[in-house]
Amino acid sequence: MCGIVGYIGDKFAAPFLLDGLTKLEYRGYDSAGIAVFDGKEIFIEKTVGRLDALKDKLKNNLPNGSIGIGHTRWATHGRPSDRNAHPHTDCHGDFVVVHNGIIENYMSLKEELIAKGHVFKSETDTEVVPHLVEEYYQGNFIAAVREVLKRIEGSYSLVFMSKANHDELICAKQDNPLVVGIGEGENFIASDIPAIINRTRSTYILNDGEIAIIKKDSVTITDRNGKVIDKKIFHVSWNAEAAEKGGYEHFMLKEINEQPKAIKDTMRGFIKQIRPAKNNNDERIAQDGSQIIFPELKWDPAFFNNINKIYIVACGTAYHAGLVGKFYIEKLARMLVEVDLASEFRYRDPIIDDKTLTIFISQSGETSDTLAAMKESKQRGAKTLAITNVIGSSLAREADQVLYTIAGPEIAVASTKAYTTQLILMFMLALYMSQLRNTLSTERTRELISLLKKIPSQISETLSDVEPIKTFAQRYGFNEHVFYIGRSLDYDVALEGALKLKEISYIHAEAYAAGELKHGTLALIIEGVPVIALATQKSVYDKTISNIKEVKARDAVVIGIAAEGDTELEKYIDHVIYVPNTDELLIPLLTVVPLQLLAYYAAITRGCDVDKPRNLAKSVTVE
Ligand code: AGP
């Protein structure tokens, strides 16, 4: 997720660009840059680091010029650096582009352009875009842009600037937000409303496939083929602070709702459709299917045959994702996995050698305990894989191999979209390992990948009706103790649900393996105690029902989380929250959502500071 701004009018562009980027820093902050046409040339300044680093560079040479674009980056391809910062240009600096999103086919386009003599300066996917404009430009700017948009695949919001056509900016939207602000004799572009709300509240919210040609006194919006679209003006009524949260009251709720897109973005590029070869006689790919591919992972089948132990090491929510990851790898790839808290792992003299693979999960990539555990692991000869949300983070730099969640910046202390994207990556990794080890049939692989693709829309469906959850949170939000129970994967998700409730509502919440209750905790179950019971795992369903009966017999109030179509559970408990049905391996991605919302609304009910809970930091960079 990056921040984009653009200005065209009679005033100087640079002050708006810098102010707009400041308002969008929450969208990405590893590097930033601006480009301004000063009447003769396009002036560009860009730098790695926070926006302040860019402002320092511009302190005594703020460019004049009244048309410009700017960008604050959240790296997805190419680590944070001066040369990978946006804007990017063609070979001669005649065309300049800023981009938010992922150009999926950039490698093949880059090879094609290099073969035609184009010289690239960065490692980014974005840089292919201005070179394509250079390739297609024959005097008509918008015509060249339309040709470029036919060639690129993936998700993007793009803003194009041209030295020769310096009386207009062109932008294009696909899967990533882009807003046009309408002023008096000036117009604005931004990824998000906060960047323009102090200059105008009249906006066009672009839809996928739309192109805007923006001059200082006109905005023309067309479809990809040039057909003009008569857009309605959207008047922004939010205040500036609400705008930063996309209209949501808190970043946490915004990020819970971003999960469908974050999961789509994390899956993007890793699922390949396979067609049987004409002379195919391999029954394993007898018909069309799918495969997981991880181009960045330099592993081959032999690698796993040499691995005899896998550790997954993390903290907090990332640790809970690791527990689910263990289940996936053992179930699908049939490899033994041990999961450990980083703060424990590093001090327990772990048994590691060169046949050990240690997987470290960390949203921030800066958690001190996790980093220390990785160092310990490497010193003992293990191969290391990092799963992180921040390109260029310490963990990413230290690991032998890295897989990135593409969740975008997670601002709220309570981790939500990072957790579900970690689960997605672990699931795909387990499938990938199963392909290398031939532990799953082609049919089963195809079935799981087909169900995986439906998860984003199923989460959206779950998010579409929060009222029952809000009601439970208001009714039980003042209890001082809440229990979460489940078996198998339901237990792993129960742990995450309990942590969410604890850390933002300050209610004492505990998760228990449902089968473990009778070994002690049942003594705490008394009349009126809320128990959240997850019951989605078919293989242990009847056992879970027995455990629910145990707590109901002590007059607990039981709220169940079940898959749609389950007509049994409601017979035994007080309330049921249903999530869409899917394979029991994938259902944790759905059952965690009501638990995130339950924690959120309980915290609201109790008047807690949802985004910045007491005593906690977003990234624990100290021991
Ligand atoms: C989760 O909601 C918490 N904020 C915390 O447990 C967090 O998951 C933990 O500190 C690990 O952080 P990391 O993923 O950045 O390493």
Structure, described:
The chain is of the alpha/beta class. The protein has three domains: 3-247, Aminohydrolase, N-terminal nucleophile (Ntn) domain (Glutamine Phosphoribosylpyrophosphate, subunit 1, domain 1); 261-461, Glucose-6-phosphate isomerase like protein, domain 1 (Rossmann fold, 3-Layer(aba) Sandwich), CATH 3.40.50; 465-605, Rossmann fold, CATH 3.40.50. The protein is 34% helix and 23% strand. It has 19 helices and 26 strands. The chain has an eight-stranded antiparallel sheet with strand order 3-2-4-1-10-9-11-14, covered by helices on one side. The chain has a six-stranded antiparallel sheet with strand order 5-6-7-8-12-13. The longest helix has 22 residues, at 442-463. The chain is globular and about 80 Å long. The two termini are 30 Å apart. The structure holds 2-deoxy-2-amino glucitol-6-phosphate.
Care to give the gist of this entry?
Helices cover 34% and strands 23% of the residues. It folds into three domains: 3-247, Glutamine Phosphoribosylpyrophosphate, subunit 1, domain 1 (4-Layer Sandwich), CATH 3.60.20; 261-461, Rossmann fold, CATH 3.40.50.10490; 465-605, Glucose-6-phosphate isomerase like protein, domain 1 (Rossmann fold, 3-Layer(aba) Sandwich). By secondary structure, it is α/β, with parallel strands linked by helices.
List the strand order in the largest sheet.
Answer: 3-2-4-1-10-9-11-14
Strand share of the residues? 15-25%
| CATH top level class name of the largest domain | Alpha Beta
N-C termini distance: 30 Å
Largest pleated sheet: 8 strands, antiparallel
Q: Superfamily at the CATH H level of the largest domain?
A: Aminohydrolase, N-terminal nucleophile (Ntn) domain
- Rg over CA atoms: 26 Å
How much helix is in the residues? 25-40%
What is the CATH topology classification name of the largest domain?
Glutamine Phosphoribosylpyrophosphate, subunit 1, domain 1
Average of per-residue pLDDT values: 93
